[in-house]
Amino acid sequence: QVQLVESGGGLVQAGGSLRLSCAASGRAYSSYAMGWFRQAPGKEREFVASISSSGGSTYYANSVKGRFTISRDNAKNTVHLQVNSLKPEDTAVYYCAAGARLSSALNGYHAWGQGTQVTVSS
What we know:
Radius of gyration: 13 Å
Number of helices: 0
Shape: globular
Helix content: under 10%
Structural class: mainly beta
Number of strands: 11
């Protein structure tokens, strides 16, 4: 079972940027696809971005295309989400997750981090 810990969230003004990080444990980390999801108060958790085990393929929600970038460094067991041009509607807890393959579905992931808060002020 992989263990995931997110960091890098914070309070930023609209138009600002953050770099979210996810540190993973486990020798099988490099075999997992990784995803980022977010959840705002009173709303369901939603897909943001995913990346294949090799890092060769990525997929983004339409709401973040052109603004967010997912990447991974398998040698360091880390995955990142660079979030640029932030909008108030991006405010949410952001979660890192590990799964068997690149997917936008919640049930495609078997391990989750505790989340990191991103708050965008207007």
